[in-house]
Amino acid sequence: MEFPQLRHSSSTAQILSPLYTLPLGQNTLNMIELRDYLGRTALQLAVLGEHYDCIQLLLEKSRMDVIEEGLLHAIKTENVKICDMFLGHPVYSNPRSRLQLDFHHSYYEQEDNSSSFAPDITPVVLAAQCNNFDIVHMLIQKGFTIATPHNYFCFCTECYNHKNFDRVVHSKSRLNAYRGLASTAYLSLSCDDPIHAAFELSRSLQKLAEREKEHKNEYRGLSEKCKNFAVDLLDQCRTHEEVMAALHGGTDTRDLLRIKMAIRYEQKKFIAHASCQEHLASMWYAGASWFQHQNFPIKLVLVPLGILFIPVTAIVYVFLPYSRIGKILKSPFMKFMNYICSYTAFLVLLFLGTQLSSFKSVHLFNGTEGVVNGLIMFYVLGMFWAECKQLWEEGVKGYFSQMWNYMDITMLALYTAGYSTEGVIYTKTRGLVAADNLIHGDAHWVPTKAGE
Questions:
Q1: Domain limits at 304?
Q2: Number of domains in the chain
Q3: What is the Cα–Cα distance from 387 to 98, expressed in whole angstroms?
Q4: What is the rounded CA–CA span in Å between residue 169 and residue 180?
Q5: What is the DSSP code (8-state) at residue 431?
Q6: For residues 448 and 285, what is the distance between their CA atoms, to the nearest angstrom?
Q7: What would the pLDDT profile of 45-58 be if each residue is shown by its tens digit?
Q8: CA angle 396, 402, 405 (to 5 degrees)
Q9: In this structure, is residue 157 part of a structural domain?
Q10: pTM of the prediction?
Q11: Does residue 368 form part of some domain?
Q12: 100 within a domain of the structure (yes/no)
C-alpha cells in the first residue's frame, strides 16, 4: 500500500511535531487516538515515517490497543529498532496487560473495521509470516507463541462456537496460524528439534489439504515448504560431523531413528538428498567397503560361496559377536548378503523337499527327506523368531503398518499349518503301519501326505 503524504519525511514531521507541545490531558489523549482518512493513528504514522522520538512520546500516551496495532505495523515494515521500542513498553511485561491484549485478538472482535489486520493476527503470527528472524526471536523471548489449531473434526465448545459464528473467519484464522507455524524463522527458533517439527507439521498439513478442500492448494504449499525447510537445513551441513548431527539429532550415530522418521512421514526429498544418501551408503558398506567397487560378475559369484559358508558365519555371529569377523558380519550389507544366501538355501531345501515327497518309499521324518524337512522346519522357526523380534522392536502399531509383514505372517502360518498337519497325520497313522503293510503288501510303505 502506498502512503502519499509520507513520501517526504519532512511533511510527516510537520504533522507529528505539534505532539511535543501538547499538554497531557484527556483532550490530548483523544487527539492522539484520532485517525486520518485512511484509518491510521498518529502512532502508526510515526512508525511508517520512522520518527523514533515521536514513537517514544506516543507510546507513553496511547492505549493498549493502539500500541498493539502500532507494533503490528512496525512488524510489517520489518523495522527491528521500532519493534524493540514497542516490546520495551510495560504493557508487554505485565501479565495482566498481556491478557487484555489477548482479549483484543479475540475471535469475536469483528466489529472494529478501523484496524488494518484481522483480529486473529497476533504480533508473532505476523512476524512469522514475514519470516523475520530478529523480530521472531524478540517476540519468543517475550513469551509470544503460536497456538496450534485444534483438530479439524474437533467438537469442543470453542470450535463449535467459532464455526457457528462465522465459518469463513474460522477457516481463515486456522490458515493464518498454520502459515505462522510453517515459517522458517518460527520453526528454527521455537523448536528444539526443527527437523522433527517440520516432518510432523508437513504431514499434518498434507492431511489438512485433503480435508479442507477450499484451502487445498495453500495447505499443500505449506506442506511443501516444511519439506524444503528440512532439506535446506541438510544443505547447510558442510562437514561429516554436521551431517551426522542433522541425521541423528545428536543421539547414537549407529541408529537410524531420524531416517526412519523421514520414511514414516514420507519425506522423499530429505531421504533423496545427496548427504543423506552418502551417509546411508557409508553405513551400508561399513566393514565391507571393498565390495562396493567390485564388478557384477564377482558379486554374483559371492552368493553361492555365501551359501556354503552359512554354518560358519552363523556360528561366528552368535558365539563371537565382538571379534573382527563378527563386527564385519554385523554391518547392514553383510546382514543383507547373509539373508540372501540363507533364503536361497531355504528355497533349495523347499525344492528338494517337494521332489523327495513324490516318492512313496521315503518317510516324512526319516532318511533323506527327514533331514530336509528338519532343516526346513528349522528355517521356519528362525523366520518366526525374526518376526517376533521385529514386532518387539517396532511395536504393534509400527509392525502392522507395513503391508509386507502381513505377507510374512501368512507365509509362516501356511508353513506351520502344513507341517503341523503332516506331523499329526504321521503320528496318528504310525500305529497302523503293520496293518497297512499287510493290506498293501509293502513293508516300506508309510503314509507321508495328508491325501494318502
A1: 295-440
A2: 1
A3: 55
A4: 17
A5: G
A6: 46
A7: 888 888 888 888 88
A8: 80
A9: no
A10: 0.70
A11: yes
A12: no
